[in-house]
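Supplementary notes (optional reading)

For those who missed the lab, this is the record we used. Protein: Asparaginase. Length: 334 residues.
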Amino acid sequence: MTPPALAQAPVLAHVTRGAVVESVHRASVAVTASDGSVLQAWGDPHDPVFPRSSNKPLQSVAMVRAGLDLPPHHLALASASHSAEPFHLDAVREMLAAAGLTEADLQNTPDLPYDPDERDVWIAAGHAPRSLAQNCSGKHAAMLATCRVNGWDIATYRDPRHPLQQLMAQTIADLAGEPVAATAVDGCGAPVMAISLAGLARAFGRVAAAEPTTDEGRVADAIRQHPEYLGGTRRDVTALIRGTRGVIAKDGAEAVYAVGLPDGRGVALKIADGGQRARPVVLAAVLRRLGVESSAFERLESAPILGHGQPVGAVVAADLDGTMSVGGSTTHAG
């Protein structure tokens, strides 16, 4: 089997302990221009990846195109990997009730809350894993509501052949400007569609720059207005959206991050080993390089390595001028 391009991705983060680089993280990054072309890249921007939950805003666009009409905070929750804070769970229940459904109709994998603090509270209260608490319950509630609007079967809404999933695949391909490369099963049980990092960046740039009255613009505005519903009050993706003018963003499992800038540029990255600790650090470095200003950078770049409970090192971004590619051609900068 040919090794995936990620295996040869450049080292974009160092993990230090004292004065020693203890570990490194390889990553691929794509930056697209407002016209969708690849502006800058580290690693192969065209190799397919599973964006995991970074696909969710694109899937929300598909549902709005299918006639789903939600208030903005519910639409942000449809795009979310939420922390299972009480306001998240209340909003999921509201979405289901508005469609004449209940938690029993959710088919996402039962789980404990994503947020560690909320997980502790949940367990202390004696609760078992539930679909409601799992971080994708907002998306699943929205998928069920979309099926209700269109008269589609709700029992099979996770089937890749279902009209909803077919529409999602078509919408992702449309926004990414490339066909879906593969379909598999995500952690929540719904289909996940693979596209390249360039396609993911391109899609986020298009959604971020869309006119507010369009389907894409409605999703973007909902995310900007209610970033706490997209993530949670203690999440770096929420801090990034709050602290950066006009952006939309979405984190994903296996260390994926996607950002759309209001001028139509897009950024998408994947840490090769799937480890989350380098994900926000590398993203902040790329955004700084692009001239983006944000009050959230200090938060994203804070990744201490502890020894006896005290900071003794950090996860830090490597020199991005080391190895990069422009338009897909690899260059080695001085």
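If you only remember one thing from this example: Residues 5-332 form a domain with the Beta-lactamase fold (CATH 3.40.710).
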